[in-house]
Amino acid sequence: MPKVIHFNIKAIKPKKLKEFYEKVFDWKFIKWDDSGEGLDYYMINTGGGEQGIDGGMSLKRDLEDHTEITIGVKDIDSYMEIIEACGGKITSPKMSIPGYGWIINFEDPQGNNYSIMEEDSEAK
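Above: the chain's sequence. Below: its structure in token form.
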């Protein structure tokens, strides 16, 4: 079955937004050599050797140009605090997915919508 192998975050100011993700999730960004084309694109490494996917970040073409992904975390409550401390906004209450875990939705400082999820087989 096909699996997601890449994601692309849309950013109004990529250099500024990468600072948010570096602080919150400790992701590593590498500026793409666009050979003078002005793409302002970054490759994103979300962590070597762990389950998950890597992705990219490109310019947002218009305000409706959003990306949504779910990010797995070990302690959702801690990450909710970190997101808000770094300028993000929690947009839904913490919800359980019975037998699977806990999830919340949030916006980053430039209005992109995401979810974070903590696996917990005992969630009710």
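Residues 8-119 form a domain with the 2,3-Dihydroxybiphenyl 1,2-Dioxygenase; domain 1 fold (CATH 3.10.180.10).
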